[in-house]
Design brief:
299 residues, mainly alpha, Farnesyl Diphosphate Synthase, 14 helices, globular, transmembrane, Chl_synth, membrane, chlorophyll biosynthesis
């Protein structure tokens, strides 16, 4: 390898593309739900909240994207050669070095936000590496890979938002909501697999559409999204929050209407259903966060 190649540095635009800013929104939204659900005013905590948003999106999720692209570089060279690493815009082993650097920066910031935040971030990073890196490569199986993404993108982010505000482990009702919306997000992750069925078959990735077939996987995705929301509605009613329960029920019914059309043409409508259905889903998340915000922090 020549000295010129060794010293070649990727352009900032290529690095930004590798970090995939468009993927940062879900965990940043879930983090915001955690902040709201704590019921505590921002007050002097706003710098910590901003740091938490940076941690969840531009650091943790960006790390997972870089790790994934690095370990998928050979597959991407066939299916998506225009991506930064296979195209050579991220040269040499820069993809790996960036993955390590972003992991270190994530841990450094998380360590300043409290023990519970650091613990959640550390577990999330371990899952990010296990999701993509051999020999484990959780992404090879849709059950495990989707679960890892769902819990980190939704549950850990929600937990982190509440923990940042409270300064300790959040109360059980917050943890329950974070868990339920994480469980539903498993179905959302399955929706993302419909666009790559052919490539998954060719490369041996056992996504749920590959394992179960298109129609069965589509039905499962809808059920997995819906059941946790039904439980949330029941909890909100039990907690004396009928207005927010009605909001979550309304967005669930709207998702059901969209799902009918999706189930008729799963492959053609998966991206459409994901875009509209997930928008409704996250509205319900925030409504649930608002519902418990008046419960207050544990004594």
């Amino acid at each position: 390898m020549s000295a010129t190649t060794t010293l070649q540095v990727p352009a900032p635009s290529a690095v930004l593309e590798l970090l995939k800013p468009i993927t940062w929104f879900p965990p940043m939204w879930a983090f915001s739900c955690g902040v709201v659900s704590s019921g505590l005013p921002l007050g002097p905590r706003w710098p910590v909240v901003i740091a938490g948003i940076v941690l969840c999106g531009p650091l943790l999720v960006a790390t997972s994207q870089v790790v994934n692209d690095w370990f998928d570089r050979h597959v991407d060279a066939i299916n998506e050669p225009q991506r930064p690493i296979p195209s050579g815009r991220i040269p040499g082993r820069w993809g790996l070095w960036l993955a390590i650097l972003w992991t270190a920066m994530s841990l450094a910031l998380a360590s300043q936000l409290g023990a519970w935040v650091f613990g959640a971030a550390a577990v999330g990073l371990v899952l990010a590496w296990l999701y993509s890196a051999p020999p484990v490569r959780l992404k090879q199986n849709g059950w495990w890979g989707n679960a890892a993404c769902a819990i980190t993108y939704e549950g850990f982010a929600w937990f982190t938002g509440a923990a940042v505000m409270i300064g300790d482990v959040p109360p059980w009702w917050i943890v329950a909501l974070a868990f339920l919306y994480s469980a539903g997000a498993h179905g959302i992750m399955t929706l993302n697999d419909f666009k790559s069925i052919e490539g998954d078959i060719r490369t041996g990735v056992r996504s749920l559409p590959v394992q179960l077939g298109v129609d069965a996987a589509a039905r499962l995705a809808c059920i997995v999204m819906a059941v946790p929301q039904v439980i949330v509605v029941a909890l909100l009613l039990a907690w004396g929050r009928p207005v927010q329960a009605a909001i979550v029920a309304a967005v669930l019914v709207a998702q059901g209407v969209l799902a009918v059309r999706f189930l008729r043409e799963p492959i053609a409508k998966a991206t459409w259903f994901s875009g509209l259905g997930v928008t409704l889903y996250v509205i319900g998340m925030m409504a649930s966060a608002v519902a418990v915000s008046s419960f207050g922090a544990p004594a």
